[in-house]
């Protein structure tokens, strides 16, 4: 019976049956398609008692009828509820009859009372008009005239103007673009540093997990009582000795009678307490830091902040989030930037989080962090070396259709790797060429998943909004029989890169997002490396070159530093004719000229090429964004730098400035690649460090 369904029980007290019981042509209830947590529960908690509940319920049902994805419907509910709530509170309205769209929407548009940004107001207003249009179309197409009149009372109040009359969309887009470009400016020059630091952090967690496993084995196999103290020295990169204490719940409860046990806490057989860090070199006066995520764990923010969390802890967490730029300064309520929404991935056990304040050290649930850094490192590498979209990233799967090894018989013999994925707006697999380092990370994730599943990696439902386009597969981004979604990847990326400081020129903190890295990749490729826009569009798998132009517009820093650099770059690095977008016919001609797919199966100077199309720089590989430098080829670059240094001196001596500037550009590109290689060498050496545990 319909009255026994969970969504009916939750919504029937506020929503009439004529809405709740709407069915499709097959006699199935539209609300059967709703996501219980993200649609039904949110609606019941936040909208069911409001004057606008019927209008938003109708909008949700129509979105379900149109098979919109979960996130789109969730966003619609949130934005419309936010618009109404802000308006009603500001004007003291109590019923929908008091809401006058021609007055209140105009004032909302002009920002006369709303605390929302222009961009957010633009999004909310767009949502309002889109929902109203869908409601009107649904009524016209589904109902006869009598029924239509009955359902009109559930429409959003209709204003006399159209969205385009407000002109806020243009303002919202302009503000959004300014914000995005300012954020891009903060990260665009730091790709190698970000990757290097992420690899070092990954190595630290791998060693932490091994030490944790060794300590657990000592307890289980030798019967050593708990708690058990141990320490180990980290690598020279860190230069610290870290001290830990191993607990289980029983020993912790005995030592800490005041410990609380949440009702929703999953079992935790063993967990760690980080006690302290000490400098190995006693003459070093810099304060030891320990693991980068200790502050996050101590604050208890590596999970969702529950409603029963004390106000003191909530205020402390909110202040921390604002200081680091994870939320806006005027944000209210609880937010969860590090909550993965995925069991076993990053999220700390509730028992550990709620008892953080009763210990001097920091309690750590090791396994979820160990799992998270694997996914985080692959995400960061893919985004910074290819600008991949998150929907493409989540498609990576453990099948021969996705992972392809390309052998080139040489000389010399080489092996290249490609991931076959479906880009946005396409329906066919395309090549995403990757380095051996990326495939190594993929292999580590496969190994971790096989250990987790005791054998084969299962097929699971695709984890993002395009799940209706993809079959169940053994996706790499999965854990506990469920694929990760965008929210999980976003939380993991913020976690892995937390503490790496990024700021706009105005001093606003910036945190890493996959789409921001995509913008930064495009900007650096065009503005920093001189790649033509149409070639960068190929790298990004974008059809529309105008979108690539928007992504790759210069940042404020690049503009301010461009005067001397621009002349040099144009003299030595860019064919001015190539800056102009070329026609498909011209591209076809150049494709014939370079028909051997330069790069992917041929070694390039100093590294590996990830582009399988025409060579955009006529095989002048130095500084090309499509190339990933490799430490194995370091000597090649060093020899090239000496060559260009000698040539530059010769040309300047003889007054041949044009050629001297070309050499200067080449030297600059080589220096940049050598710097990135130094970072790679540093974390590769760190990978091989094996600490010795000392038990006490």
TrEMBL record:
InterPro entries: DNA_brk_join_enz (IPR011010), Integrase-like_cat_sf (IPR013762). One of its GO terms (biological process) is DNA recombination. One of its GO terms (molecular function) is DNA binding. Keywords: DNA recombination. This is Phage integrase family protein. It comes from Halalkalibacter akibai (strain ATCC 43226 / DSM 21942 / CIP 109018 / JCM 9157 / 1139).
């Amino acid at each position: 019976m319909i009255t026994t369904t969970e969504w009916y029980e939750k919504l029937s007290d506020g929503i009439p049956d004529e809405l709740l019981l709407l069915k499709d042509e097959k006699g199935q209830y539209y609300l059967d398609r709703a996501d219980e947590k993200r649609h039904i529960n949110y609606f019941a908690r936040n909208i069911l008692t409001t004057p606008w509940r019927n209008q938003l319920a109708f909008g949700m049902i129509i979105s379900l009828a149109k098979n919109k994805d979960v996130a789109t419907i969730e966003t619609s509910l949130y934005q419309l509820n936010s618009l109404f709530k802000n308006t009603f509170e500001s004007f003291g309205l109590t019923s929908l009859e008091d809401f006058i769209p021609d007055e209140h929407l105009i004032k909302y548009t002009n920002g006369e009372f709303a605390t929302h940004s222009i961009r957010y107001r633009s999004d909310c207003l767009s949502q309002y008009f889109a929902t109203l249009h869908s409601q009107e179309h649904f009524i016209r197409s589904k109902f006869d005239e009598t029924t239509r009149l009955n359902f009109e009372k559930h429409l959003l109040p209709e204003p006399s103007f159209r969205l385009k009359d407000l002109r806020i969309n243009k303002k919202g887009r302009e503000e959004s673009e300014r914000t995005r470009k300012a954020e891009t400016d903060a990260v665009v020059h730091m790709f190698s540093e970000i990757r290097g630091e992420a690899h070092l952090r990954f190595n630290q967690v791998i060693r932490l997990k091994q030490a944790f496993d060794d300590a657990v084995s000592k307890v289980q196999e030798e019967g050593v009582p708990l708690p058990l103290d141990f320490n180990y020295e980290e690598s020279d990169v860190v230069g610290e000795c870290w001290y830990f204490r191993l607990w289980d719940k029983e020993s912790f409860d005995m030592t800490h009678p005041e410990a609380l046990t949440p009702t929703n806490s999953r079992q935790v057989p063993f967990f760690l307490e980080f006690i302290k860090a000490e400098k190995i070199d006693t003459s070093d006066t810099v304060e030891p830091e320990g693991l980068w995520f200790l502050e996050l764990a101590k604050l208890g923010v590596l999970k969702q902040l529950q409603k029963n969390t004390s106000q003191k802890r909530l205020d402390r967490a909110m202040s921390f989030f604002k200081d680091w730029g994870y939320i806006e300064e005027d944000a209210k309520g609880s937010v969860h930037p590090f909550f993965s929404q995925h069991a076993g991935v990053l999220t700390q056990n509730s028992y550990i989080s709620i008892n953080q304040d009763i210990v001097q050290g920091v309690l750590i649930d090791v396994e979820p962090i160990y799992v998270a850094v694997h996914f985080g490192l692959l995400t960061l590498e893919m985004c910074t070396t290819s600008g991949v979209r998150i929907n493409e990233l989540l498609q990576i799967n453990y099948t021969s259709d996705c992972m392809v090894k390309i052998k080139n018989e040489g000389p010399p013999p080489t092996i290249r790797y490609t991931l076959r994925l479906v880009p946005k707006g396409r329906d066919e697999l395309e090549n995403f060429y990757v380095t051996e380092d990326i495939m190594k990370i993929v292999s580590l994730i496969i190994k971790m998943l096989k250990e987790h599943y005791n054998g084969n990696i299962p097929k699971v439902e695709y984890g993002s909004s395009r799940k209706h386009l993809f079959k169940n597969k053994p996706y790499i981004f999965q854990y506990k029989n469920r694929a990760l979604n965008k929210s999980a990847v976003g939380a993991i990326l913020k976690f892995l890169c937390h503490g790496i400081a990024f700021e706009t020129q105005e001093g606003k903190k910036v945190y890493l997002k996959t789409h921001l890295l995509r913008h930064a990749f495009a900007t650096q490729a065009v503005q920093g490396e001189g790649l033509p826009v149409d070639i960068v569009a190929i790298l990004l798998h974008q059809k529309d070159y105008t979108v690539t132009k928007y992504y790759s517009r210069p940042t404020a820093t690049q503009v301010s530093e461009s005067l001397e650099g621009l002349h040099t770059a144009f003299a030595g690095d860019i064919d001015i004719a190539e800056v102009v977008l070329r026609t498909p016919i011209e591209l076809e001609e150049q494709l014939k000229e370079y028909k051997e797919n330069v790069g992917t199966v041929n070694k390039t100077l100093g590294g590996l090429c990830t582009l399988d199309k025409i060579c955009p720089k006529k095989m002048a590989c130095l500084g090309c964004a499509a190339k990933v430098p490799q430490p194995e080829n370091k000597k090649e670059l060093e020899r090239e730098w000496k060559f260009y240094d000698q040539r530059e001196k010769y040309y300047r001596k003889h007054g041949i400035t044009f050629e001297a500037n070309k050499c200067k550009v080449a030297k600059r590109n080589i220096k940049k690649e050598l710097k990135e290689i130094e970072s790679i060498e540093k974390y590769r050496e760190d990978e091989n460090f094996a600490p010795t545990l000392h038990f006490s």
